[in-house]
Design goal:
The relative contact order is 0.10. α4 packs antiparallel against α6 (247-259). This protein is α+β, with helices and mostly antiparallel strands. The longest helix is centred in the first third of the chain and has 49 residues, at 41-89. The protein has a domain at 93-287. It is extended. β6 and β7 (233-234) form a beta hairpin. The strands form 3 sheets. Strands 3, 4, 5, 8, 9 and 10 form a 6-stranded antiparallel beta sheet that branches. Strands 1-2 form a two-stranded antiparallel sheet. The protein has a two-stranded antiparallel ribbon with strand order 6-7. It is built from 6 helices and 10 strands, in the order αααββαβββαβββαββ. It is found in: Membrane. Belongs to the polycystin family. Pfam families: Polycystin_dom (PF20519). InterPro entries: PKD_2, Polycystin, Polycystin_dom.
């Protein structure tokens, strides 16, 4: 009996064991695979490569768009410059050029007497030379030479150039402390005047201190612009005196400026601005 029961128990155990194996096989067969869960390593690598390739293509497209936009802006800027040049110089003919050169030479090339020597505008080297130039060449060029037999109509230059408004005399200055004096020579020099720059420009009142000739006016107030000169680029502001269409009145104004020492050691540039119209060539000329 005991043997039969043991055999029965053994048979039951075998059946249970086989059932567990069968269940285990069923469980294993129904477990979701890594492929089903989307965790396939090779698939992740492929997606990573695709993402990187897409990013590179997007960067390349953006870079190409930026380059095309830059080229487009460059072409538009070049076209704009060409249009401006055509508008500026397209109407400048030979007659206009020679008329303007005639007026330039009238002021720059004409000689004046300083003692026993002759000078012109190009070799002015002293304050007294400037006043001699202003009282002779400048006055005679604007209003005619009284020693000539030819009569000049008031308000005209060389008969054919009508002055539009009164000429303007303007200067720019630098401060008397615009440069550094060496310590060894400070007891010998109390003032120092540097070359012109916007940082060194003098904007304070001087002389009588009343009127535009003695008080500073900004470039915006004068509706002016910078001037590229021989030694520097000078601002469009400064101290100015509007002259007159009348010769005698202009001489009186120049005398007042001279007596009150309008031109000083700090003066770095003096400008004579005027506008004329020539009916023969139908042109308005601006000269500085």
């Amino acid at each position: 009996m005991g043997t039969v029961q043991e055999q029965e128990h053994s048979a039951d155990d075998d059946i249970q064991y086989h059932d567990m194996e069968h269940d285990s096989e069923l469980d294993i067969s129904h477990n979701p695979s890594p492929v089903d869960q989307g965790n396939n390593p090779s698939d992740s690598v492929d997606r990573g490569h695709a993402s990187k390739s897409s990013g590179k293509r997007q960067k390349g497209n953006l870079k190409g768009m930026k380059q095309r936009n830059t080229n487009k802006e460059g072409y538009l800027h070049l076209i704009f410059i060409i249009i401006v040049l055509i508008g500026t110089f397209g109407k400048t003919d030979k007659m206009t050029y020679w008329c303007k050169k005639l007026l330039d030479d009238l002021f720059v090339e004409t000689n004046f007497q300083v003692g026993v020597e002759e000078r012109n505008f190009k070799n002015i080297s002293h304050i007294s030379h400037f006043w001699k130039f202003a009282e002779t060449v400048m006055i005679d060029s604007l209003y005619g030479n009284l020693q000539d037999d030819t009569h000049q109509t008031v308000g005209y230059m060389l008969e054919d150039y009508k002055l539009i408004g009164a000429p303007r005399l303007r200067q720019v200055k630098v401060r008397n402390d615009s440069c550094i004096i060496n310590e060894a020579f400070k007891r010998l020099f109390s003032e120092c005047y540097d070359v012109y720059s916007s940082a060194n420009e003098d904007k304070g009142q001087f002389g009588p201190g009343i009127g535009t000739a003695w008080t500073y006016s900004t470039e915006e107030e004068l509706h002016g612009s910078s001037y590229w000169g021989r030694f520097s680029t000078y601002g469009g502001g400064g101290y100015y005196e509007d002259l007159s269409l009348d010769r005698i009145e202009t001489i009186e104004k120049l005398l007042t400026l001279k007596i009150n020492q309008w031109v000083t050691r700090g003066t770095r540039a003096i400008f004579l601005d005027f506008i004329v119209y020539n009916a023969n060539i139908d042109a308005i000329l601006t000269l500085t």
